[in-house]
Amino acid sequence: MRRKHALAGAATAVLALVLSACGGGGGTAQPAASASGGGAQAAFNAAVTGVFNPSTKKGGTLKAAHSADWDSLDPGDTYYGYSFNFGRFYWRTLTMYKPGPGPEGNTVVPDLAESLGEPSEDGKTWTYKLKSGLKFEDGTPITAKDVAYAVARSFDKETFPHGPSYLNELLEWPEDFKGVYKTPDVDFSSAVEATDDSTLVFHLKKPFASMDYVVQMPMTAPVPKDKDTGAKYREKVISSGPYKFETNEIGKRFTLVRNDQWDPTTDPNRPALPDRIEVQLNVNADDLDNQLIAGDIQLDIPGTGMQPAALGKVLPDPALKARTDNPTIPRLWYVSVIPDTPPLDNVNCRKAIMWAADRVANQTAYGGEVAGGEIATNVMPPGIVGQEKFDQYPSADNKGDVAKAKEALTACGQPNGFSTTMAFRADRPREKALAEAMEQALARVGIKLTLKGFPASSYFSDYAGNVDYVKKNGIGLAGHGWGSDWPDGYGFMQAIVDSRTIRDAGNYNLSVKNPEVDKLIDQASAELDETARAKLWVEVDKKVMEDASILPVVWAKSLLMRGQGVTNVAYNEGQSMYDYAMLGVE
Amino acid sequence: MTAPLDVSGSAAEAHPESVLAGAGKAIQGRSLTRIAWMRLRRDKVALAGGGVVVLLILVAIFSSPIIAAFGHPPLEFHQDQIDPATLLPKGTFGGMGGEYLLGVEPVNGRDIFSRIVAGAWISLLIGFLATVVSVIIGTVLGVIAGYFGGWVDQVIGRIMDVFLAFPLLVFAIALAGVIPDQGFGLEGNGLRIAMLIFIIGFFSWPSIGRIVRGQTLSLREREFVDAAKSLGARNGYIIFREVLPNLVAPILVYATLLIPTNILFEASLSFLGVGINPPTPTWGGMLSEAVRFYTLPHFVIFPGLAIFITVLAFNLFGDGLRDAFDPRAH
């Protein structure tokens, strides 16, 4: 497992060298990127391999900006990676990702809890012990009851529509429980209970091994019941972390200042360097990039990378490029090959598509090797715990193998090719470019593709994710993308390869309908041994590739820029962006 | 005898009517069309517009041989021309040169020249045929309203008002979004083109309809119509033999002015992603892709220029045509 990561790291380093050679940047910049991360010597990918500009200096103001509005600042009502990441300034959860760079960033460490969760023998009960000395910003102690209450309040998806629903599905909720506001008297201790002030117990419906990853999400950030204002809590969140809200103008800006009730001795994970954090919302994305380049803004909150307009400016300029990092993030862009649509019901016809696709053209369509990602050969991206890279459909230069594709077509009984339709999200230029690249590549073996664009907002509810629509309109291929909620096999794969998740509409699994895959998923999610579990997920990955129902395109990469004057910058794999809680200013 | 008319003389240019008063040879009767043609011939701007229009039509018709001679197939990728990191063309000025006349697109390196030439065909096809649709509907309803008057006129007039007040773009977006893949014996983009022609044509007929109705209204009261009526001619005869021939000129003029509007409309729909499906090149679609790469001016400029020149040429020609047929409309 480690070895794989080391290999991926080496590949990145080689890429970095090649790129810096292209950009005319001197090879001397490279040593600075080594693990020591010494000093503020700027170099491409310096914050991926180590901590860039390390510092323990406290004080100063960190200026951050967001190109849109926050989904919600309420820990029970938010589901964006940047929010999970940034929120750790003002909330603490049972566990959290280990701060800092490298593969360890994927592992979880205790935060509010004294240690990681203890599963029962059958994997259906998980117990967490809280540390002592934890306090809210008003000085009242944080108890297990506050965490249990926070979990229970996040159950109500009408009041809190944004948050993840993992705990809704995993825990043994009472039949008549409709949330803490609608049914305040119902006892929810069958799902989550505080057996004393420092002990929290989760009761699950079925064995589940990845609980430590689920409880690092902000549903477990404590909320004091007497201060809870339901949907309005987002306007005045009570802090449990090192910072608290000074001002909060929803949709415009907010400011965080130090929380004097936070005790650093209970929290080895957060250095809490700046005195003040100022956040502007709804800044134009291109403008944000320009301000980040100029130094007026120090942190681009969404953390998904720079806009295409900025790439043309940053990449050719060695000085600007040295301020950027180009990590691979746990997200796969892919094409679903839908077995409901003849002749794709025949596995050989699906394999023909795997062989015929031009991976380089697909990668370019998705933004190229820097802004787009690394060519994907299987489903699980690097960065997922235990991921193995394998290639069942290799071809010279990754341009596709026309001869093998024709063999597969003959085996499928369609030696001259066939016609089918590819769906894509019309408002996503990269997905449109991908569809065009597929059309060109498949035409080489006689597979004629008709392209059809749909609005992204109803793509899964009405079109590609709607079983009836797909069947009626003969959609054979569909552009798709998936990111993991936590970096293990279940967190990444389950939602897109388990055929039992398929409903009439709103599906995210568009194409994997294989009973053998489902069987392996059940085995994997009940396996409590981490190494054995990771192996089983690799088996799932291999089975899906044999089934040829997912054509991987790229494992996404993002181009992040380090702000001017920001210290202690490191890319964290668990957050898949810079570790915001570590940052400081000069 | 004396010198024939000096057409290039300034006097003649300022007063086209003096043609009619031309001294010399026995005065011969000139038809309205002929007079209009003489006026048009002296309108240099309109002629230039007309010339460009003819050129565009020729380009559209002969797009395949032109692309074969000067470019690459419009759907062909040339990723060797693209910098894999920035996805921008490697060459200077967007890769412009002898090989790629107007440069290549970012990302997949398709030949912009070929795509613009191929796009001309779609734009003009939709512009022309949609205009034909609206001319047919507009003329039929306009003549009926103008000729019969009374409640028929009232009803058709209100329908026109409704259509003119209709939020056309919004409706077209909704409609174009739900066009199925197959229908009416067509499939894929063939069906989409047919639907776009119908949608655009069906919603832009009232402008023609109003003109036709007004003209018919005045023609109906003219002496030759009265004469035909008193001789016992039926309505059908009068409409087809007496009224319609006199409507040809205004219809021609306004149809010419409607074509660029329709071309723009198709471009807007393609720009919004509800027009023709990719990878078929359209000017509007190219423009919408180019917006993402505004640091790369050539990609925005050429499709924009193509739309601009086409619309301008049609408008100049149409204006000239109108002036020629009806100088008082100045």
Automatic annotation (TrEMBL), chain B:
Main location: membrane
Compartments in which it is found: Cell membrane
Annotated keywords: Cell membrane, Membrane, Transmembrane, Transmembrane helix, Transport
GO biological process entries: transmembrane transport
Cellular component terms per the entry's GO annotation: plasma membrane
PANTHER family, per the entry: D,D-DIPEPTIDE TRANSPORT SYSTEM PERMEASE PROTEIN DDPC-RELATED, OLIGOPEPTIDE TRANSPORT SYSTEM PERMEASE PROTEIN APPC
Pfam families the UniProt entry points to: BPD_transp_1, OppC_N
Lineage of the organism: Bacteria, Bacillati, Actinomycetota, Actinomycetes, Streptosporangiales
Family membership noted in the UniProt record: Belongs to the binding-protein-dependent transport system permease family.
Domain ABC transmembrane type-1: 120-318
PROSITE patterns given in the database record: ABC_TM1
Residue spans crossing the bilayer: 45-70, 120-147, 159-179, 191-212, 251-276, 296-318
Membrane topology term: Multi-pass membrane protein
Record protein name field: ABC transporter permease
Organism superkingdom: Bacteria
